[in-house]
Design a protein that fits this description.
Helix content is about 65%, strand content about 10%. The protein is α+β, with helices and mostly antiparallel strands.
């Protein structure tokens, strides 16, 4: 981290306070050593001035300030000594640990501890008196105590920064989750809106085109009847969707969502809407049991059949549209086949959103989907369009 080279305002205050207090003690004759052994008393002001100047570098260059301060402290011991000089040196030790590099923050406490122990042992060996232990304790407070204080403050500061970083990361992850939830909800709403309305609008488009292109009162009357029926049903579906979106309780969708029990009515509705297209619709329900499946599976299967029938109304050539449903083991298989080829008469345009919605529904359940033209299995020369989906019945049986 790059530090500002300009001294901090607090550093100016510390330097000024240390220098002024040192000069005051010197003027009052309060020294750390006997003035008679050092006739040049004014020499104590030199390390005092140097130490106060180094205080200006305690944040920007803490390691240099500590190294130079150590030399100034040694020089101070060669004079009558100043308590302010020693006090400012303890601050440089503290600043060296707090503002220095991580390596310096680890090494300075160890070095000061060794220096304190060395001073104590040396004084004991030199004076051979128990009072030397007191001097060692003072040295420990000056050197090691300051380093420990700086290490404690630095650890607390690093912990606070780490907590702030974790809070920012948590907020970022929460925002990402919220965004993904909004996107997923919008995709779900788009699938529901498309699946619920596309079938009715396709029938309306086909029969309105037929009514406009054929000059036959009977055909026009039948087409208008189909248009009216699909308009009413489409409006009812839209009202149901709007009601679900406005409901704040979230309890209506499972009971209001379509199930596989409504496939007969869905096929019959498609059969009625395809009266003038030459399409025949059949349903082969090969499930061994007719019990309810999990709601997401039933909804996905129903929507896949609904979209496939809608696509058949739009694009299939005359022939049989077959819906097959099987439930074997852990899978529910949905297969819809329709004639594939040139289709005469009116057609409704497609956007491809239906296939995208089907793939999304199947992917959410961990199943597989195949959609495309294949050769007819009966050995005939023509091709059929097949949509085949395999849906896991239980959560634990999803497949990648």
């Amino acid at each position: 981290m790059l530090l500002d080279t300009r001294p901090h305002r607090d550093d100016f205050l510390i330097a000024a306070l240390g220098l002024s207090s040192g000069v005051l003690l010197w003027s009052l004759g309060l020294h750390m050593q006997n003035a008679r052994s050092t006739p040049d008393v004014w020499l104590a002001l030199v390390p005092l001035a140097v130490m106060s100047a180094l205080e200006l570098l305690r944040r920007s260059h803490p390691q240099f300030a500590l190294a130079a301060g150590t030399l100034a402290l040694v020089g101070d011991q060669l004079t009558v000594g100043s308590l302010s000089t020693v006090a400012m040196f303890t601050d440089l030790v503290y600043a060296g640990v707090l503002y220095g590099t991580p390596a310096a923050a680890r090494r300075i406490p160890v070095a000061t501890f060794l220096v304190s122990v060395g001073i104590t042992i040396g004084l004991l060996a030199w004076f051979q008196k128990a009072e030397a232990l007191l001097v060692g304790i003072v040295a420990g407070l000056v050197f090691f105590g300051s380093a420990l204080t700086g290490a404690a403050v630095r650890n607390h500061r690093d912990a606070a920064e780490a907590a702030g970083l974790r809070a920012e990361q948590t907020a970022l992850l929460a925002e990402m989750d919220r965004t993904q939830a909004v996107v997923a909800e919008r995709a779900r709403m788009a699938r529901e809106l498309h699946d619920m309305v596309a079938n009715h609008l396709s029938a309306i488009a086909i029969h309105s085109t037929a009514a406009l292109s054929l000059d036959d009162p009977g055909t026009t009357r039948d087409a208008l009847g189909v248009i009216r029926e699909n308009s009413v049903q489409g409006l009812a579906e839209m009202r149901r969707l709007i009601g679900l979106l406005r409901d704040s309780g979230g309890d209506l969708e499972p009971s209001a969502a379509p199930t596989l029990a409504g496939l007969d009515a869905l096929v019959e509705q498609s059969r009625a809407g395809a009266a003038s297209t030459g399409l025949e619709f059949t349903l082969a329900d090969g499930r061994t049991g007719r019990g309810r499946l999990p709601a997401p599976v039933e909804l996905a299967a129903y929507r896949i059949v609904q979209e496939s029938l809608t696509n058949a109304l739009k694009h299939a050539s005359p022939g049989e549209v077959r819906v097959a449903l099987e439930h074997t083991g852990p899978l529910v298989t949905v297969e819809v086949t329709s004639p594939y080829g040139h289709r005469p008469g009116p057609r409704a345009p497609g956007s491809g959103a239906g296939l995208v919605g089907m793939r999304e529904r199947v992917a959410l359940l961990g199943g597989t989907l195949e959609a495309g033209p294949v050769a007819d299995g009966d050995g005939a020369a023509h091709t059929i369009w097949r949509v085949r989906a395999e849906l896991p019945v239980t959560e634990g049986e999803k497949r990648a």
